[in-house]
């Protein structure tokens, strides 16, 4: 089979012939029809991620058709159209992942290949209203945004939500999930065009975080926020406590723009704010996210589709962050 192989930091995406995986107990072979990139794949490709090993096949997001199963008990999966949960071996505590937790696509071979082997417990029926590219876009970013909003942020209909940096893959999903849940969603972005795209997807309004007075403008527009989803942090975070309503939940799972700046601690405790970290999600959250997608017939935002045989352009676009929504590779 063909796969994109991470040979070294200098040769991060070589499309070449590799051995097709052989199955063990509990496993299925999925013929990948589409896969999607995450920021994680980019960090690994440039050597900036813990536990990198060469050679590896990256890719956490994928959708395809079950071609083989090992166990007779799994035969009902044969020929099924599936999407793959990349959040593996979560562990016994729903509150946090255990020590064996791993994300598909390093250390185990991922979805940037014609075939992947994966335990059947991580297979889910592909939402019928989505094509391969749309289905493949969901798993990692969709799951992270789902847990951040609902489990950690305890979002409910009518809440006011701020999504910082809506152009992030996770940002677009957080927007779509929150709109479906009946929240009033505001966004920030470094691009006016992306704010406009967010409005078309149901955001009430947005501001450009590069403007001097972005926080004041946002406060004027929205009043205050009950939930803030921030995967950028950096200098801009200093303004977040002031934008929060009393009792607000601020959820973070990334720090694209850097670590915490100084911020007003007194405002933080006086308003009884909660700062919550999150990463990926449980099997139950993955299933609940797909239920939301199916019930609301949500269609993920695809920025561009590339051929798996020529992945360099997709990685370059991820590096430049010029996309809105997901970058997808098709076989
Ligand atoms: N812990 C986890 O489980 C988990 C899962 C997924 C992602 N992550 C992390 O979460 C972050 C987002 O990941 P991703 O793949 O969704 O998206 P991404 O492509 O890494 O997101 C980049 C986006 O961050 C926004 N941004 C950059 N600088 C900013 C600033 N100064 N202020 C506000 N926003 C800024 C930009 O939004 P605009 O384009 O709108 O300006 C940009 O498009 C990354 O750090 C990633 O490593 C963690």
What integer is the average pLDDT? 97
Got a strand count? 18
Poorly predicted runs are none
Total of DSSP H or I helical runs spanning 4+ residues: 10
Bound ligands, each once: NADP nicotinamide-adenine-dinucleotide phosphate
Order of helices and strands: EEEHEEEEEEEHHEHEHEHEHEHEHEHE
Computed Rg: 20 Å
Shape: globular
Architecture overview:
- This protein has ten helices and 18 strands.
- It has helices at 39-45, 132-137, 139-152, 169-180, 192-200, 214-222, 240-243, 265-270, 283-295, 312-320; strands spanning 2-6, 14-17, 27-36, 56-57, 61-69, 81-84, 87-88, 102-103, 115-119, 123-125, 160-164, 184-189, 205-208, 225-230, 244-252, 274-277, 302-307, 326-330.
- The strands form four sheets. Strands 3, 5, 6, 9, 10, 17 and 18 form a seven-stranded mixed sheet that branches. It has a six-stranded parallel sheet with strand order 13-12-11-14-15-16, with helices on both faces.
- The protein is globular and about 55 Å long.
- The mean pLDDT is 97.
- NADP nicotinamide-adenine-dinucleotide phosphate (NAP) is lined by residues 38-40, 140-141, 144, 164-170, 188-191, 194, 209, 231-232, 234, 236, 253-254, 256-257, 279-280, 321.
- The site of NADP nicotinamide-adenine-dinucleotide phosphate has 30 residues, from helix 1, helix 3, helix 4 and strand 12.
- InterPro entries: ADH-like_C, ADH-like_N, ER, GroES-like_sf, NAD(P)-bd_dom_sf, Zinc_ADH-like.
- GO terms for molecular function: oxidoreductase activity.
- It comes from Mucilaginibacter straminoryzae.
- It holds the Pfam family ADH_N.
């Amino acid at each position: 089979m063909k796969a994109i192989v991470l040979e070294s930091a200098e040769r991060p995406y070589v499309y070449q012939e590799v051995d097709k995986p052989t199955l063990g107990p509990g496993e299925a072979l999925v013929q990948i029809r589409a896969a999607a990139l995450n920021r994680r794949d980019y960090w690994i490709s440039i050597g900036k991620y813990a536990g990198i090993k060469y050679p590896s096949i990256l890719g956490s997001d994928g959708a395809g058709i079950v071609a083989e199963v090992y166990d007779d008990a799994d035969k009902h999966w044969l020929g099924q159209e599936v999407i793959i949960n990349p959040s593996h071996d979560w562990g016994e505590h729903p509150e946090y992942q255990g020590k064996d937790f791993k994300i598909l696509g390093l250390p185990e071979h991922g979805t940037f290949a014609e075939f992947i082997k994966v335990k059947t417990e991580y297979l889910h029926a592909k939402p019928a209203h989505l094509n391969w590219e749309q289905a493949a876009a969901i798993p990692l970013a969709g799951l992270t945004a789902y847990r951040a909003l609902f489990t950690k942020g305890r979002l409910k209909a009518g809440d006011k939500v701020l999504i910082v940096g809506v152009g992030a893959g996770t940002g677009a999903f957080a927007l779509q999930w929150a709109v479906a849940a009946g929240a009033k969603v505001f966004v920030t972005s470094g691009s006016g065009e992306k704010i406009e795209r967010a409005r078309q997807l149901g955001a009430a309004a947005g501001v450009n975080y590069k403007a001097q007075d972005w926080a004041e403008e946002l406060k004027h527009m929205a009043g205050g926020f009950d939930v803030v989803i921030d995967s950028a942090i950096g200098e801009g975070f200093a303004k977040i406590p002031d934008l929060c309503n009393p009792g607000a939940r601020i959820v973070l799972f990334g720090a694209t723009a850097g670590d915490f700046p100084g911020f007003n601690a007194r405002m933080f405790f006086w308003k009884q704010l909660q700062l919550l970290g999150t990463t990926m999600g449980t099997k139950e959250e993955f299933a609940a996210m797909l239920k939301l997608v199916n019930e609301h017939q949500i269609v993920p935002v695809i920025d561009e589709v590339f051929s798996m045989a020529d992945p360099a352009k997709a990685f370059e676009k991820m590096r430049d962050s010029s996309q809105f929504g997901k970058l997808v590779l098709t076989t």
